[in-house]
C-alpha cells in the first residue's frame, strides 16, 4: 500500500516532468529552426557556428542527458517528460516554418 507522501511525490514528479517537457519542446523547436537557418547560410561566421553548437547542445541535453538524469531519480517523471516532449515537439515540428 502506498503512503500519502509517496502518492504526492509521484504527482509532483509527473507535474514537473510535464512542465519541463513543455519547456524543452518549445526550445528544441527554436534550436531546430536555428540549425536550419544556420545551415542555409552561405558563409559561416563565428557567431553562426556558436549558435549552431549551442542549438545542437540543447537538443542533446533535452533528448538524452536530462531525461536520463531524471529517470535515475524518478521513472514516472521521466516518462511524463518524454511523453510531453515528443508530443509537443511533433506538434511544433509540423507547425514550424520550413
TrEMBL record:
<keyword id="KW-0812">Transmembrane</keyword>
<feature type="transmembrane region" description="Helical">
    <location>
        <begin position="44"/>
        <end position="64"/>
    </location>
</feature>
<protein>
    <submittedName>
        <fullName>Uncharacterized protein</fullName>
    </submittedName>
</protein>
<keyword id="KW-1133">Transmembrane helix</keyword>
<feature type="transmembrane region" description="Helical">
    <location>
        <begin position="6"/>
        <end position="24"/>
    </location>
</feature>
<keyword id="KW-0472">Membrane</keyword>
<feature type="transmembrane region" description="Helical">
    <location>
        <begin position="70"/>
        <end position="89"/>
    </location>
</feature>
Amino acid at each position: 500500500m502506498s503512503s500519502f507522501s509517496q502518492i504526492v511525490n509521484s504527482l509532483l514528479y509527473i507535474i514537473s516532468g510535464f512542465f519541463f517537457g513543455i519547456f524543452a519542446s518549445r526550445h528544441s523547436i527554436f534550436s531546430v529552426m536555428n540549425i536550419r537557418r544556420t545551415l542555409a547560410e552561405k558563409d559561416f561566421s563565428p557567431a553562426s557556428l556558436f549558435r549552431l553548437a549551442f542549438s545542437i547542445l540543447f537538443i542533446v541535453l533535452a533528448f538524452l542527458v536530462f531525461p536520463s538524469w531524471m529517470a535515475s531519480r524518478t521513472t514516472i517523471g521521466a516518462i511524463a517528460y518524454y511523453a510531453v516532449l515528443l508530443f509537443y515537439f511533433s506538434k511544433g515540428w509540423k507547425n514550424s516554418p520550413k
